[in-house]
């Protein structure tokens, strides 16, 4: 290209408005910040009430809300000698809390609501419970008390009438835990048969569960309840200001949910779910006024217990008590409440805490960036024994440290795969990387003797995942790039070597590819516990990226020979991937060389980012990924041969590298479209704002109420927009060198700042008509390259350039104008 020295002076371009840029305007990004203004968080409204609740606005601090309930009448009982049989029942076990529990059919007629019959044919029907009375019983109907872990939805009730079985009642679409079933006519009988043909499918499984069948129609006084809405997902310790109560210690039950869909008597997830608990928090209210802070533990022994910290949007408060909490708490009386609030424990991301920010001409992109930042803040919290995942996740080595949990409500454990995304979001928004470093260092400290690094502290650092040691490598390189903390790299260099030179070679086959199944890894999982085996593109492409990152760590710590060796290995793996796993018929990389033919979002995206794919392969693979586009994102598989919903399930975690690949392959507008479909869907559906762990068929929460609706691994829109749309990225530790390479697509302008150890690196660009303008201000003592669109004229700081390509500059402020 031939350059002309001066066609239009810079001043002329600016004065004409052709290169107008918002760079000098007052930043307006603060209005997008989502976090509450203080740690004392109040609900924004009362959504609903049932039963006797007076002045519900008292829950918002507007006077006093009063809950009243009369004592329920005694339940009817079966004649002595009544028994029950069933088509099947689950074997006894310890019930998740070490206490023996049985599930035999007799539990449905024993008068104890804490025991229940549980069939043993998950998702298979019919399930039949037959009750034989000890003497003829006169029945207008029966009342079925089921279980909040899943109620029978469709069932019939038959009675033995005149020696013949007949259907006395049919129920369809049931959602009530306690359901009174009236018969078509009263009958005196000795046998009742309940046949279930459909149950709720819950995270606890699709089973028929019946706690009690009472002989008669039970109409308890309605439970007074109120649902309050905090406006968005929050996390911390709920508090209730009680203005007093009746003298009988009435019980209050609390359940929590991120969505209204899964709000019921039982929370959508609580730690007690994994220890055989009730799934709700209980408190026996004293007569005198008091402020109760929801704290993990029990008021007396093992009775009247609570979980403490919760992540939720909606809170259901009811005047009720578990039968097992009698006599300490009663399901009747009067309770007066003068306010509900929350002690917010996560990182509080107010405008003054942002060390990096982003803004553009596209309002939706701005909202998604700050919503994802808030999602990440909800998981950035102190590691505490009282509120981490109860499945063996507590670790004294993390206790009291700031960490990046994977989610606000669950698992509340730091996973390194999640840190691979949430760490980037942390570096680009608020903080110097301490939370990510604490996690990375702790996992390395628990490295296994053979070099494998655990994914998290869960199961006492033993959860066997195949890919997560690779994420430890890439996340360590990202941490050093953004923080400049080469001392960390030096401290854990031996761990890096052991992972890459001992463990991964032990699972490498004769073609030089990682193959899950070697060295006893057949039962290992990955980020989604997918049943993949053999040579998997995703594992191998991530391996290449890990080797490339390891080479950077090696050079930063004075080990150039290791860097060269690892890069040579990366080239060999890349060549083997292309030779063995590229599917020319589909124009994409196979998910696995073993089993059914399919093509994964994770493997193809990572292959592009690793440089395995040529430009033409990248274009073809991205077209393949877009072919199954859904209103709520791009699915993670192109068919359903691996899992039944592969073409319907969307992960923001695996979508993030696809977004990066699209930006870097010249498909900025397709990346923006994908962002808007995926993050736009989550923003528009309950609970709003925060980014979900996964999206399922029809745009649902992919694991129902178990799904985390505020998950750090889904915050990739932050680095995608800052690193790729705005274009700012480090290229050596601590931003000693950097690049600004905007990928604007159709966005008119963008600006932002990225924190570095030497101060903020800011960039602002705009495009109007044929002119593109970029201004960069970088800390002194650093240098970088500016990558801008080609044009007829390029001026750097007012001087026309004679050559095309990246523009190398030192720290300070620089402006580039391009006339295209």
The share of residues in helices is 10-25%
Total separate domains = 4
CATH-scheme architecture of the largest domain = Alpha/alpha barrel
The largest sheet, given as strand count, sense and whether it forms a barrel, is: 10 strands, antiparallel
* Number of distinct beta strands: 36
Broad shape: globular
Q: Might you state the CATH topology name of the largest domain? A: Glycosyltransferase
Distance between the termini: 13 Å
Q: What's the overall average pLDDT, rounded? A: 94
Low-pLDDT residue spans = 1-25
Reading off the top of the CATH hierarchy, the class of the largest domain is best stated as: Mainly Alpha
Number of helices: 15
Q: Percent of residues in beta strands?
A: 25-35%
> Rg, please?
30 Å
Q: Briefly note the structural class of the backbone.
A: alpha+beta
Pfam family, one: Bac_rhamnosid6H
Domain F5/8 type C: 84-208
Signal peptide: 1-25
Domain Alpha-L-rhamnosidase C-terminal: 727-792
């Amino acid at each position: 290209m031939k350059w002309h020295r001066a066609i239009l002076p810079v001043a002329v371009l600016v004065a004409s408005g052709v290169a107008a840029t918002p760079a000098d305007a007052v930043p307006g990004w603060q209005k997008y910040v989502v976090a509450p203004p203080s740690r004392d968080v109040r609900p924004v409204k009362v959504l609903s009430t049932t039963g006797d609740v007076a002045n519900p606005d008292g829950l918002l601090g507007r006077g006093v809300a009063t809950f009243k309930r009369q004592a329920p009448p005694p339940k009817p009982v079966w004649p002595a000698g009544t028994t029950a049989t069933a088509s099947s029942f689950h074997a006894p076990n310890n019930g998740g809390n070490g206490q023996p529990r049985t599930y035999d059919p007799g539990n449905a007629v024993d008068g104890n609501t804490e025991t229940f019959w549980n069939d043993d044919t998950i998702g298979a029907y019919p399930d039949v419970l037959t009750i034989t009375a000890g003497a003829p019983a006169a029945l207008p109907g029966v009342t079925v008390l089921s279980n909040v872990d899943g109620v029978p939805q469709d069932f019939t009730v038959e009675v033995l009438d005149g020696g013949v079985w007949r259907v006395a009642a049919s129920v369809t679409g049931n959602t009530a835990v306690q359901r009174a079933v009236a018969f078509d006519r009263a009958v005196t009988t000795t046998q009742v048969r309940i046949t279930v043909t459909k149950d709720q499918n819950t995270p606890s499984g699709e089973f028929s569960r019946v706690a009690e069948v009472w002989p008669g129609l039970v109409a308890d006084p309605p439970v007074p309840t109120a649902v309050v809405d905090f406006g968005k997902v929050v996390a911390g310790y709920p508090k209730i200001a009680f203005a007093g109560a009746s003298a009988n210690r009435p019980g209050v039950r609390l359940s929590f949910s991120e969505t209204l869909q899964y709000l019921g008597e039982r929370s959508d997830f609580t730690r007690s779910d994994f220890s055989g608990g009730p799934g709700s928090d209980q408190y026996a209210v004293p007569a005198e006024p008091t402020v109760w802070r929801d704290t993990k533990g029990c008021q007396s022994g093992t009775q009247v217990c609570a979980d403490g910290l919760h992540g939720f949007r909606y809170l259901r408060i009811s005047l009720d008590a578990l039968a097992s909490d009698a006599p300490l708490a009663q399901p009747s009386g009067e309770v007066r409440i003068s306010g509900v609030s929350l002690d917010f424990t996560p990182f509080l991301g107010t405008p003054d805490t942002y060390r990096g920010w982003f803004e553009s001409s596209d309002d939706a992109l701005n909202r998604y960036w700050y919503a994802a930042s808030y999602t990440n803040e909800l998981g950035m919290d102190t590691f505490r024994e009282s509120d981490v995942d109860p499945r063996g996740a507590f670790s004294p080595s993390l206790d009291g440290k700031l960490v990046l949990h994977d989610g606000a409500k669950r698992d509340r454990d730091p996973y390194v795969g999640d840190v691979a995304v949430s760490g980037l979001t942390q570096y680009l928004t608020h903080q110097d990387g301490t939370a990510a470093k604490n996690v990375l260092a702790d996992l390395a400290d628990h490295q296994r003797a053979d070099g494998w690094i655990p994914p998290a502290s869960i199961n006492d650092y033993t959860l066997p995942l195949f890919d997560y040691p690779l994420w430890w490598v890439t996340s360590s390189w990202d941490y050093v790039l953004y923080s400049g903390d080469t001392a960390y790299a030096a401290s854990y260099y031996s761990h890096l070597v052991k992972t890459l030179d001992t463990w991964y070679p032990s699972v490498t086959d004769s073609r030089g590819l990682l193959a899950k199944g070697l060295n006893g890894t057949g039962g290992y999982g990955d980020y989604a516990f997918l049943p993949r085996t053999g040579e998997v593109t995703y594992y191998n492409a991530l391996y290449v990226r890990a080797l490339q990152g390891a080479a950077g760590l090696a050079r930063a710590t004075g080990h150039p020979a290791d860097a060269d060796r690892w890069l040579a290995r990366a080239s060999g793996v890349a060549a083997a991937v292309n030779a063995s796993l590229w599917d020319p018929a589909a124009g994409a990389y196979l998910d696995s060389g073993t089993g059914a033919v399919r093509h994964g979002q994770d493997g193809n995206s990572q292959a592009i980012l690793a440089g395995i794919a040529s430009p033409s392969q990248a274009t073809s693979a991205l077209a393949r990924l877009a072919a199954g586009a859904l209103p709520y994102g791009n699915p993670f598989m192109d068919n359903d041969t691996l899992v039944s919903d592969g073409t319907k399930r969307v992960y923001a975690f695996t979508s993030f590298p696809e977004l990066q690949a699209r930006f870097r392959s010249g498909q900025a507008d397709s990346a923006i479209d994908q962002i808007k479909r995926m993050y736009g869907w989550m923003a528009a559906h309950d609970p709003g704002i925060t980014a979900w762990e996964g999206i399922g068929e029809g745009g649902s929460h992919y694991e129902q109420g178990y799904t985390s609706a505020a998950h750090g691994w889904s915050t990739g829109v932050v680095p995608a927009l800052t690193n790729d749309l705005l274009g700012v990225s480090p290229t050596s530790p601590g931003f000693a060198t950097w690049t600004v390479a905007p990928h604007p697509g159709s966005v008119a302008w963008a600006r932002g700042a990225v924190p570095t150890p030497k101060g903020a690196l800011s960039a602002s660009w705009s495009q109007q008509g044929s002119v593109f303008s970029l201004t960069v201000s970088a800390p002194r003592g650093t240098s970088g390259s500016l990558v801008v669109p080609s044009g007829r004229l390029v001026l750097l700081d007012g001087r026309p350039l004679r050559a095309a390509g990246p523009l190398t500059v030192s720290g300070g402020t620089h402006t580039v104008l391009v006339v295209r």
